[in-house]
Amino acid sequence: MTEGKRTNASGAEERQKEYMDRAHDALAVITRAHGRPMRASVVTFGCQMNARDSEKLRGILSAVGYELTDNELDADLVLYNTCTVRENADLHVYGRLGRLTGLKARRPDLIVGLCGCMMQEPGVVAKIRRSYPVVDLIFGTHNLFTFPELLYRILTEKKRIIDLWEGTDAIVENLPVKRTYPFKSGVNVMFGCNNFCSYCIVPYVRGRERSRRPEDILSEIRGLAGDGVREIMLLGQNVNSYGKTLERPFSFARLLREAAAVDGIDRIRFMTSHPKDLSDELIEAIAETPKVCRHLHLPVQSGSSRLLRAMNRHYTREDYLALVKKIRAAVPDISLTTDIIVGFPGETEEDFRDTLSLVEEVGYDSCFTFLYSKRTGTPAASMEDQVPEDVAHERFDRLLAVVKRTGEAASSRFQGETHDVLVEELNKEPGYVTGRISQNIVVHVPGTKEDIGRIIPVVLDDCRGFYYFGTRADLH
Ligand code: 5AD
Ligand code: SF4
Q1: Binding-site residues, ligand 1, Cβ < 6 A
Q2: How confident is the model over 330-382, as pLDDT tens digits?
Q3: Which SS3 state, helix, strand or coil, does residue 179 take?
């Protein structure tokens, strides 16, 4: 295991491209011996950042000669790109590894790899070393770009490889990517997080904030537009602090405007915004740039100023509500969504009621609600007054009821209006397709697979809670 290794990007790209060629040759020999293409499956857990990383891993696997499959039971190489933000995510991976152990007993050639956030936790890796011999390859978030080299080694060395770095300054550009959707794509703008919210493990497993250079981001976006991508999602743990640490600082607002100037890109989304860093300049840029979608995900976490302080969020309930007011004044048709944690240590009934009343007051379009999960190594894990499980569950259910009621009321405000829908996929219901309006609300509408990737006008005539059934305004 390589501990504490750091690298800079110079030369890394060429080196990995060389390894891609070597892995390609090694795999060709194996493929010939089997008399059929070798198949690989990458399974993603967690957030949009992981989904984007998985596209990079698939790009490398495909360039090396693997056929990609969604069915891990049918694959010769299975790679789990893991998440560790809550304990449930970890437990899920252990469960699935148990299943793969059975599969490998029948197919000893199967290669099993693990990467992603969970692997940056030493306790997890110790457990896997000890108890999961099924795993052949482990790497982490900081050395994802060395996957070609690790792949070459696992194909040729036939022994377990564990390669984990404590951090990296590198941002390696231009490795291949296999996109999941032809018409939309994530674009990383920054990696890591410096906020250290007291419950959150992300800063420990993703490292310090690093922004990509604007010219690299914009050239990627131009390339995507050339490939037919119409919607991009700019990705970072805290996009509002994008560019502050660049040699020549560059604001996120400016990046949004420049991305919008790229021909062929019709929609721009971004995730995630931290309320403490959301500038007036950004609000202005959203308001003035029609291509920027009318949707802001603005995690509040709690409605109690006392808990927000304990969470190290750097804003109060009043600050947050004032920010919402300011955003709505500038962009009246914006849709707001949020993340909320229930059962943070020390949460009293009064704190929790503050959260309920904040949800009522803001009227979010939807909320992602989470039971607090204790993450070893974070400050909150050693706080006194951990909330008993039954109390947290009871509050969680009460919150869900409020979220449902207020969310349905908010989502129904578009009833009867005509909105552009970017069609994303066929619906399970035959004859229907599913897409999203700028406000990110899901719409089902009559259509065929030819409509996928198109932006079509739809009358939102039937609100069913958080989504709509619509009729097409382009066909009559
Ligand atoms: N427990 C529960 N939820 C958490 N989140 C982050 N860490 C934890 C934790 N320890 C939630 C936050 C964050 C979202 C991505 O996950 O709400 O915004
Ligand atoms: Fe975690 Fe807070 Fe960083 Fe989000 S901003 S990743 S919640 S530490």
Answers
A1: 85-86, 199-200, 299, 301, 339, 341, 370, 372-373, 375
A2: 999 999 999 999 999 999 999 999 999 999 999 999 999 999 999 999 999 99
A3: coil
